[in-house]
Amino acid sequence: MLELRTLTSDDWPLWRELRLAALAEAPYAFGSTLAEWQGDGDREERWRGRLSIPGARDLVAVLDGRPVGMSSGVPVEGDTTAAELISMWVSPAARGHGVADGLIDAIARWAVARGARTLLLSVRPDNTNATALYARHGFTDTGELGEALPDGSGHERVLAKPLRGAA
Ligand SMILES: CC(C)(COP(=O)(O)OP(=O)(O)OC[C@H]1O[C@@H](n2cnc3c(N)ncnc32)[C@H](O)[C@@H]1OP(=O)(O)O)[C@@H](O)C(=O)NCCC(=O)NCCS
């Protein structure tokens, strides 16, 4: 059974555990690096700060009692009609069971409840699993360039999904 938990900053140890696992397992997928969140970067107040973004929703997916995935919805600065999906990760053992589907649907519902009409995200062009997942959920390429890739070979793609039921 899949359960989605909404976290508060007090849940930072759980978020930390999953986020460090995500950055170690899928460094190709994220703008942040494991090194940035280890050592001096691995501090309680920093994790609490990450879980205290005003207006954001931070989720952990629990499959059969075990935390196996995460994602966040965050407001888009200067654009109240949009929200952004970030930090999406499902542990390898739990992939292919619809965990990401549940996370995306929950963030989309959160965004609709906030009054957003569009859900945005950024994905690296070579991340084929994530790209297929997002296409299945109705995200299309906006043509905008996202952040530059660390190897200088291009930029992240910015995808958008229109939200039904938005005001
Ligand atoms: C992308 C990701 C979140 C998908 O999670 P998931 O719960 O397995 O999602 P799905 O079950 O819908 O599978 C998505 C795709 O992964 C692939 N997949 C399915 N089962 C898989 C498995 N057991 N192992 C690896 N990949 C699998 C498939 O290609 C599937 O694409 P499809 O829709 O064409 O079948 C997950 O693979 C992941 O965390 N990847 C690393 C981090 C990442 O890329 N995050 C996104 C950053 S933008």
Helix content bin: 25-40%
The protein's oligomeric status is single chain
Bound molecules: coenzyme A
Q: What is Rg?
A: 15 Å
Structural class, from helix and strand content?
alpha+beta
Tally of DSSP β-strands:
7
Average predicted confidence as pLDDT: 96
Major sheet strand order: 1-2-3-4-5-7-6
**Strand and helix order:** EHHEEEHEHEE
InterPro entries: Acyl_CoA_acyltransferase, Bact_Acetyltransf, GNAT_dom
Pfam family, one: Acetyltransf_1
Keywords: Acyltransferase, Transferase
Organism: Streptacidiphilus fuscans
Structural account:
Helices cover 27% and strands 35% of the residues. The protein is of the alpha+beta class. The protein has a single domain (2-162), classed as Gcn5-related N-acetyltransferase (GNAT) (Aminopeptidase), CATH 3.40.630. It has a seven-stranded mixed beta sheet with strand order 1-2-3-4-5-7-6, sandwiched between helices. The longest helix is centred in the middle third of the chain and has 15 residues, at 99-113. Coenzyme A binds next to strand 4, helix 3 and helix 4.
What would the keywords be for this entry?
single chain; 167 residues; alpha+beta; Aminopeptidase; seven-stranded mixed sheet; 4 helices; 35% strand; binds coenzyme A; GNAT family N-acetyltransferase
Brief overview:
Pfam families: Acetyltransf_1. The chain is α+β, with helices and mostly antiparallel strands and 167 residues long.
List the helices and strands and how they pair.
Blueprint: E1 2-6, H1 12-25, H2 44-50, E2 57-63, E3 66-76, E4 79-90, H3 99-113, E5 118-123, H4 128-136, E6 140-148, E7 155-162
Parallel strand pairs: 4-5
Antiparallel strand pairs: 1-2, 2-3, 3-4, 5-7, 6-7
The site of coenzyme A has 18 residues, from β4, α3 and α4.
